[in-house]
Amino acid sequence: MKFNLSFVSVLILAGTLFISCNPSQREVDSTELKGGFELLSSQQTGIDFNNTIKESKFFNQYFYSQIYIGSGVAIGDINNDGLSDVFFAGSQVDDKLYLNTGDLKFKDITRESKVSKNPGWSWGVTMADVNADGYLDIYISRNGNSLDPKKRRNQLLINNKDLTFTESAVAFGLADKGFSSQAVFFDMDNDGDLDMYQVNQPADKKLFLMNKISKKDYSLFRDRIYKNEDGKFIDVSKEAGISRDFAYGLSVNASDFNNDGWIDIYVANDYAEPDFMYYNNGDGTFKNVINEKLKHITQLSMGSDTGDINNDGNIDLITTDMTPEDHYRSKTNMASMSTERFESLVKAGAHRQYMSNTLQINTGSGSFYDIANIAGISSTDWSWASLLVDLDNDGWKDVIVSNGIKKDVDNNDYRSLLNKLNEETTAEELYELSKNAPSQPISNYAFKNNNGFKFEKISKEWGFDTPSFSSGMAYGDLDNDGDLDVVINNMEHPAFVYENKTNGNFLKIKLQGHYKNKFGFGVKVKINHGNKIQVSENIVTRGFFSSVEPGIFFGLGNDKKVDLIEVIWPDGKVNFFENINANETITAIYSKAKEKASNTSKRKTLLSKINTVNIGLEFTHKENEYNDFAEEILLPHKLSTNGPFSVTADVNGDNLDDVFIGGASGQEGVLFLQTSDSKFIRSKSKPWEVDKNSEDLGALFFDLDGDGDQDLYVTSGGSEFKKGNILLKDRIYINDGLGNFSKNNTAIPNIYESTQTVKASDIDADGDLDLFIGTRLISGKYTFPATSYILINEKGILKKAFEEIAPDLINIGMVTDAVFSDIDQDGDEDLLIVGEWMEIKVLENSNGIFNDRSKKFGINNNSRGIWWSITKNDLDNDGDDDYILGNLGKNNKFKASKKHPFKVYANDFDGNGTNDVVLAKYYKDGYVPMRGKECTTQQMPYVGEKFKDFHSFASSKLIDILPEETVEEAVVYEISNFESIMLINNNGKLTVENLPIQAQISPIKNSLIEDFNDDGYKDILIVGNHYGVEVETVRYDAGYGSLFLGDGKNKFKFIPSDLSGFHIPLDSRSISSIKTKNNDRVYLITNNNDSLAIFKKNRFLK
User: How are strands ordered across the β-sheet holding 882-886?
Assistant: First the structure.
C-alpha cells in the first residue's frame, strides 16, 4: 500500500497532534532487536488471582462437562490515571479487580469496588465505555450449570468514576440470560454509538441429561445482537439476520475483513456447528459468508483473533483447536475423524472442519487461505486463547496461545474405561473416576513472526514455557515502557503476569472519539514507515473470554520515524499525521477528522478475468464419485481426481488456436474451435464421446501421420481402474486437416496402464514425432513404482520401444509430468521426469538411447518429492532451458528435513491381500506412524490385537508396530523437502533455486512462463491445490493462483492478487496459453470438478 504524501500534506490540519509528555525512555538507535519476557511472581505484582475449581460428588465433569474451560481477563484503565488495570473473571471463585499503582504493582480493590457483589460462573469479560461517559465499564458473560436464568444473568458493571461500580445490566437492556460465552462491543451501523454482539450456547450437555429443558429455555440459547438506541440496547437479532441455529460459541471478533468501512463479525463455535463469519451489509443486516470466504475451518474452534499477519493491509484471522503437537499426546488424546461424518457435515452445509488451528490470510480479493501448517502453528494442544500481537516491537504480529485443560477428559484409554460404565454406576464412583482422570499441565505457546509466513516457536526463549492450565489471556502496556505485557488467567495456579523486556521502537495512538464512542472502538489505523505498512484496529474483545488494552500500538523495529499515519473512524472520516518520531504517543481526535475524498477509479491489473459465457468456453468438469480410501484406508490423498487437462493447437488451419479439454470418467472431453472474433464454439466432431467411460488425463496435439495437421493423443488414467482394464488404453484421434477427428484403434499398441503424461520428440531422428508416456500409478498399489515407456512413430503407427532404448523407465515410479529439453545443448532432446514419491530424473539422450544421468547434471540423491509438474523455459534469457518444478509445497503437516526425512512404507503387512500404506515421521529417537490406532487397525486388524490400548500404541516406534520380515520387502521412500523449486541451467549443470514463500502454500499443478508485464523478463504464473485428501489431513486448498514477476536474474517477486488480477481459489490443474486474433493471448485454467477460468492480459500496462 502506497501513500501519496503530496496529497495528504494538504490534509494534515485534519489531524490534531498531541505528543505524550512522558515518552518511554527507550533507545531509538538500538541496532539489535531483543525479545523476551519475565514472569513476575504474585509477591512482586500483588496479583494473586487463582481460578481454583473444587469438585465434589455432585459437582464434577459428569455433572458439568465444561467445568474446566476457565475464564477470561480484561485490561483497561478504569480510573483514567494513565495506568491500565486488570480484571479477572472467576468460575467458582469471585471475580477480582486489581488497580495498577505503577511499576507493575497492583492493589486488589475487589471488595470496595463492588465488582463481585453478584457472584456467578463468569466466563467472558470485556471492558467498554457502554454509557459513553469517558470511563471504561465492565461487561461479564455468565455461564454455569444452573437452569435458573437469574443465576446466570450477565452483568454490566457501570463505572461510577470513583473506583466503584454499579451493576446495571437490566437498566441498559443487556441482562442476557443465555448460557453466555463472550460479548464484543462495536458500532454495527456506523451511527457513532456502540452496539453489542453476545455469544451464547445451549445448556451444557449434562444438563440436558439431568433436566427437562423448556421451550422458553431454548429461546435463550442463541447468539444475540443488540442495537444501541439512545443508550438502551435492543435485541435485533432476527432483523439483523444472524443465525438462529444453536451453536457452542466460545469466542467472537469484530473486524472489517473486506475493507468496506463496516465492521464484520467472526464467531468461533465448538463442536459440529461451523463458525459464523458475518459480513456487514451496511444496512443493519449481516450475511454469513463462512462457506464462501473460507476454504475450510477449525472443527473445535475455541480461541480466535484478527489482525494483519503479513502487513499487506488486509485483516487476517486465527482460530485454535485442540490437536497436540506431541506425538504421544496426539495418539492418546485425539479420536480418529470419521470420513462418513465429515462428508455428511459438508453435505449439510456445515463446511469442511478439520482438527487443526487455522491461520487464514486475507487475499484482499474476496477469499482467505490457511497457512497454519507452513507457519508452524497448526497444533498447539488444548488451546484456548490465541492472540495476534507484536510482542517484540519488530513490526510483525506474533502469535501467543494459552493452553491446557485440568483433566484430559478426551484421553482415549480413559474414554474406553468410561464406555464400560452402566446405569448402576453411582455418583461416588463417577466422582472417583473424575478425580483419577489423566491430568497434565501444558506450557503455553509463543511464536515469533518472521515476515508473515514463517513463525518460530520461541516459547522457551520468551519465558512462556511454564506448564499450566491457562485460559483467558490479554495484553497491554502495564508499565508504560513502550511494549506490551501479557496477563493470563490460570486454573489451579496464580495468574501469570509477564513483563515484556523487548527494546524495539514503538508508536502508540490514543483516540478521542465521537461523544457516543469516546474510546474510538472500531477505528482502523494505517501507518507507513521505512517502505513498510502496518494496519491495526481498535477492538478490545480478542482471544478467548478476554479483552485487551484499548488504543492502537505499533512496533517499529529500528525505524526512527513514521512517515504517515492515517486514522480512519467508523463513519469514514480520517485524521492524517506525518513524520512522527518513534517512541511517542499521539492522540487522534474525532472532532478534528475530515471526510476523505472518495477514490472511484478502478485499480488496473496485469490480468483480468473473462466471463466464459461471453467467449463460448462453457465447460464444467464433473468428477466421478470414487472412494480411493475404501481399500487403502491410509492413503494420504486421492489419486482419482488428477484431471482435467487442456491442450491447444490450430486444428483446422485457420491460424487460430483451438483447445481440447478432457473429461472425467463418465464425461466426454470437448474440443472448442476458435472463431474469427476470438470466441469459441464446440466442435461437432467428437469421436471421443464413445470413450467417455475412460478418465481423460494428459493430452497432446501432434502430427502423427505427417500430413501437416494436428492429431490428438489422450491418455487414460485414474485409480478406479485396475491394471489391464480396457478403459486404460490410451487413444489417438486422427485429424482430416479440417478439424474433423476419427479414432484410430490400431495406431497405438494395446497397453492397459493408468497413464497421465504424454510428451513428443523426434527420439529416433527420422523426422517424425515419437512419444514418451508416463504411467501415473498402479491401482491399489500406492507408491509401488510403475513402468513408463516410449512409443516410436513408424509411418503413423506408434509402437512400444524396446526397453534398451530407455532401461531406466522400468519401475521408474509414479510419473506425473515430464519435458523433453536439450539440457546440454548437444542438438538432441533429453528427458526430465518427475513424479509422486520420485526423485527428479534426467535421462540423457545419446543417439536415441536414454540413460539416467541425473547426477551428471547436478541432481543429488535427496531430490525425492511429491512432484506434480515440470515446466521448461529460458528463465534468465541465457539461451538454454530452465525449469519450474511443482512439489507438494510446505503448507502441509508432513514435516521433512535432511536430518529427519519424512517416510512412507508400503506392503501387504498383514497378508490379507491389500496394500497397506504407512506414513511415518521422526519423533524423539525413531520413526512413528502418522495415523492413529483406530484407522491403522481398520487397515491392518492385527494392530488392534497387538496393542490393546492407546498408550501402548502411542509409546511404540514403527519397528515395534510393523512385522520385521514384511518391512524388509516393503517399498520404502523418504523425502527431505516438499518445496517447489527452480532448476537453473548453468552450462548443463542444474542448480536449485528457491521459489518465493508464496509459491509454497499449496501444490503447484502447473506453471506458465511468459513476460506478463512487458519488461523483457520472464515471469511465472502458477496454479494448484489438491482437494482430495483423507479427512485427518487438512486439504490442500490454500492456492488461489499466483503471479511472480522476474528481474532476469532468477529472482521473482510475488504480486498480490488485487494487483495481478489473477485470483482463482479452485482445485486447479492446468494452464493453457491461447493465441487469439491480433496475437493477443488468453489463459485458460482447468479446475477439478468445476468450471473453467479464463484470464486475459491487459496490454495498457507497462
Answer: 869-873, 882-886, 981-986, 989-994
Q: Is 954 exposed, middle or buried (0-12, 13-18, 19+ CB in 10 A)?
A: buried
d(CA 84, CA 474): 12
Phi, psi of 1040 (to 5 degrees): -135, 25
Query: What residue type is assigned to position 278 of the chain?
Result: Y
Distance CA 565, CA 554 (A): 11
Identify the three-state secondary structure at position 492: coil
Q: What is the DSSP string of 330-386?
A: HHHH-PPPPHHHHHHHHHTT---EESS-EEEEE-SSS-EEE-HHHHT-S--SSEEEE
What number of CA atoms fall less than 13 Å from residue 676's CA on the CB side?
A: 1
Bridge-based pairing of strands 584-589 and 505-512 is parallel
Spatial distance between the Cα atoms of 92 and 886, rounded to a whole number of angstroms: 55
Q: Against a cut of 0.90, is the pTM above it? A: yes
Distance CA 1020, CA 1013 (A): 11
Residue 383 CB burial class (10 angstroms; 0-12, 13-18, ≥19): buried
- From residue 204, give the alpha-carbon distance in Å to each of 132, 180, 469, 843, 937: 35, 11, 21, 65, 33
**Residue among 836, 833, 848, 847 at smallest CA distance from 983:** 833
Cell numbers for 918: 504407512
Going by C-alpha positions, the residue among 976, 1027, 1006 that lies closest to residue 886 is 1006
Which candidate, 890, 859, 885, places its Cα nearest to that of 978?
890
3-state SS class at 725:
coil
Establish whether the linkage from the previous residue to 644 is cis, with ω within 30° of 0. yes
Q: For residue 320, what are the CA distances in angstroms to 122, 314, 484?
A: 21, 20, 22
The 3-class SS string of 771-833 reads EEEEEEECCCCCCCCCCCEEEEEECCEEEECCHHHCHHHCCCCEEEEEEEECCCCCCCCEEEE
Residue 659 CA to chain centroid, in angstroms? 34
297-298 vs 546-547, strand pairing mode = unpaired
pLDDT in tens, 52-76: 999 999 999 999 999 999 999 999 9
Whole-number Cα distances in Å, 326 to 181, 193, 284, 914: 29, 46, 46, 31
> How far is the C-alpha of 881 from the C-alpha of 93, rounded, in Å?
71
Q: Which residue has the cell 510428451?
A: 759
Q: What is the enclosing helix (H) or strand (E) of 432?
A: helix 427-435
Grid cell, residue 622, equals 464433473
User: Cell triple for residue 634?
Assistant: 491410509
In this structure, what DSSP letter does residue 549 have? -
Residue type, 542: R
Confidence of residue 977 (pLDDT cuts 50, 70, 90): very high
Tell me the per-residue pLDDT of 473-512, one tens digit each, with 9 for 90 and over: 999 999 999 999 999 999 999 999 999 999 999 999 999 9
Read off φ and ψ for residue 1043, nearest 5 degrees: -115, 130
- Spatial distance between the Cα atoms of 24 and 508, rounded to a whole number of angstroms: 11
